Backbone:
């Protein structure tokens, strides 16, 4: 069976959900192998095996962590050649796309980003122009390199295969790179990640500095908290919560838009959600044009009432 | 591209001509390419131009010999993006245009733009937007860095340039990922892409609009930059679009006005859709 190589960057203590999704997808296309940069713990090796990886490749004698992108891409290209992979899958983060971009040039392979589905012939489905078209695309030259959006595939339950062998790959001359001089982590909110969440409650300028009602509704629904750029620019919430053209593109089961007018740049990040609910005090807000259920009203009255009602129903 | 010392900086800003996001945008034709009527300078490239202008202003301005060149690749109309960049403050422009470029994907675009940069010669810094507002792939900047063997400092939300006693330039930047922020450093030459967090782009003023009329724009063809037409455009593309379906427009649902019970009715709606 042909090898499908999955790139995993710095798994840390345990595989991320998105990594498990990639391994699951790889197993539907061929035999999964993994190109892994960063530390590899015995636990993660075991998890990789349990998700079908037959071989794990790591870079030999190369500091891929201290430099931006170039060395990771060189490593991935080398691992693709070493493994004879038929195709390469990566996550859809900024960095995933960039590693894919450069590995594509090194391998002479086409790259497709933002995939939501990949069929057996590597025909990729994605949406373009801010969600206004669904297209199918395919790589015509080289081995397909595809970055896949999180939540597009249901991750399979782990099996009980043993730990796969770990092989070191020699990396030929990576390109020149910028040096990483510092890194600061974001503190975890304990809520689901925006791009993995089933439910998102997002607040905009209308929350006027107080995300409390948004967070409470998100928490009773087990959802993530999102925001418009007006809210992140105001500093009410961190930039990583921004949904839209220059933030995250999300497709949850439910998106509750609160105190957000619905500008085109905001819509482009959320209009592929299954169900959209909007709460806004201005009946003329464009967000109502795309909402399945809209409430014209004051969020500070409507949200606490909804949160209380959900709590009540749950007893 | 040598390490810049003493003399002024040569900065290339990549500007793409894209369909205006304020209007409905369409794919069409046999190969589902983007309809480019109603096109403008990509909003996200304005942040790159602003970053270039601020770097120049922080280091002695035009008088210090710094120069900003706006470069676009695209059909005849794409020169509008360069003209807008000249009005805002770029010093000169380059328009790469050739029939054979039509249908280029990221691989072809980065190949052609890399050839333009080599053709220009002593470029110290390439600045781009974080993504084009039509293609939205963010592939081009990283591929350009790979092709030109330049350090990439991409998705910069903060950018600073300093020079040491010997006149060598040092670039420092902050890049925000999903779960962490990192600070990075690089010498020049380098390739930088910037996010919309980095600055507030300025508008062209009357003086800028008048001055732009006298600024030179060089038009280049593939032959002039030594690119084989077979390596770009449809024939050189490494990917192809098979089908394109417009997404059915979302139709508005029920809108209620709060009469004191809207929170409860909202929850009833969620329950009816099995979303609780
Ligand atoms: C290059 C570029 C990129 C951009 N990228 C993004 C992006 O990724 N994401 C994004 O969101 N935006 C983005 N924007 C900004 C976008 O154009 C809008 O400016 C922004 O989305 C507006 O945010 P908002 O809806 O929260 O604020 P506003 O447009 O000010 O709307 C606030 C809304 O809150 C309502 N409101 C006020 N008080 C209450 C209350 N008590 N109860 C209920 N409703 C209330 C008001 O009626 C109003 O409709 C971008 C802009 C540019 C130029
Ligand atoms: N045809 C083009 N002409 C000029 N610059 C471009 C072109 N295509 C892409 N770019 C630059 O590359 C950035 C990222 O584009 P993309 O990779 O298409 O998302 C854009 O913001 C531009 O700065």
Residues:
């Amino acid at each position: 069976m042909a090898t499908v190589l999955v790139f995993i960057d710095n798994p840390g203590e345990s595989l991320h959900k998105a990594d498990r999704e990639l391994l699951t997808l790889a197993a539907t296309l061929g035999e999964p192998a993994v190109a892994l940069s960063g530390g590899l713990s015995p636990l993660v090796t075991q998890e990789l095996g349990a998700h079908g990886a037959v071989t794990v490749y790591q870079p030999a004698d190369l500091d891929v962590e201290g430099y931006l992108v170039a060395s990771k891409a060189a490593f991935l290209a080398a691992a693709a050649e070493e493994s004879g992979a038929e195709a390469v899958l990566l996550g859809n983060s900024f960095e995933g796309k960039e590693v894919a971009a450069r590995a594509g040039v090194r391998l002479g392979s086409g790259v497709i980003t933002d995939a939501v589905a990949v069929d057996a012939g590597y025909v990729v489905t994605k949406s373009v122009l801010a969600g206004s078209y669904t297209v199918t695309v395919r790589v015509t030259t080289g081995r397909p390199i595809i970055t896949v959006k999180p939540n597009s595939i249901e991750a399979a339950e782990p099996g009980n295969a043993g730990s796969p062998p770990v092989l070191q790959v020699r990396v030929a001359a990576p390109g020149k790179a910028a040096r990483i001089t510092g890194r600061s982590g974001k503190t975890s909110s304990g809520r689901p990640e925006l791009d993995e969440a089933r439910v998102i409650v997002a607040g905009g300028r209308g929350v006027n500095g107080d995300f409390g009602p948004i967070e409470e509704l998100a928490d009773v629904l087990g959802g993530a908290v999102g925001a418009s750029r007006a809210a992140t620019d105001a500093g009410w919430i961190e930039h990583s919560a921004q949904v839209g053209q220059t933030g995250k593109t999300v497709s949850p089961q439910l998106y509750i838009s609160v105190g957000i007018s619905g500008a085109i740049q905001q819509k482009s990040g959320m209009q592929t959600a299954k169900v959209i609910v909007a709460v806004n005090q201005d009946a003329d807000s464009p967000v109502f044009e795309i909402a399945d259920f809209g409430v014209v009203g004051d969020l500070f009255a409507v949200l606490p009432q909804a949160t209380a009602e959900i709590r009540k129903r749950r007893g | 591209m040598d390490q810049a010392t003493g003399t002024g900086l040569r900065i290339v800003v990549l500007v793409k001509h894209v369909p205006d996001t304020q209007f409905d945008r369409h794919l069409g034709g046999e190969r589902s390419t983007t309809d480019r009527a109603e096109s403008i300078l990509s909003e996200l490239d304005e942040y790159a131009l602003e970053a270039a202008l601020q770097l120049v202003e922080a280091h002695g301005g035009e008088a210090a010999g710094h120069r900003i060149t706006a470069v676009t690749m695209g059909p005849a109309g794409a020169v509008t993006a360069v003209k807008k960049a000249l009005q805002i403050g770029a010093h000169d422009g380059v328009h790469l245009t050739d029939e054979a470029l039509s249908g280029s994907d990221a691989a072809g675009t980065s190949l052609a733009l890399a050839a333009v940069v080599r053709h220009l010669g002593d470029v110290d810094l390439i600045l781009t937007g974080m993504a084009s507002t039509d293609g939205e792939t963010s592939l081009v900047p990283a591929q350009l860095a790979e092709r030109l063997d330049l350090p990439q400092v991409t998705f910069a939300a903060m950018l600073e340039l300093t020079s040491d006693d010997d006149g060598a330039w040092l670039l420092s930047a902050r890049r925000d990922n999903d779960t962490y922020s990192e600070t990075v450093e690089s010498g020049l030459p380098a390739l930088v892409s910037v996010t919309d967090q980095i600055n507030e782009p300025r508008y062209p003023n009357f003086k800028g609009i008048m001055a732009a009329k006298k600024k030179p724009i060089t038009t280049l063809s593939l032959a002039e930059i030594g690119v084989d037409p077979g390596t770009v455009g449809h024939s050189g593309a490494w990917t192809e679009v098979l089908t394109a379906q417009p997404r059915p427009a979302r139709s508005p649902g029920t809108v209620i006005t709060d009469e004191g019970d809207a929170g409860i009715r909202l929850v009833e709606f969620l329950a009816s859709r099995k979303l609780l």
Summary: Chain B has one domain: 10-236. The pocket of adenosine monophosphate (ligand 2) is lined by residues B 14-16, 42, 44-45, 48, 72-74, 106, 109, 128-129, 131-132, 135-141 (CB under 6 Å). The first strand of chain B starts at residue 10 and ends at 14. Residues 12 and 122 of chain B are 10 Å apart (CA to CA).
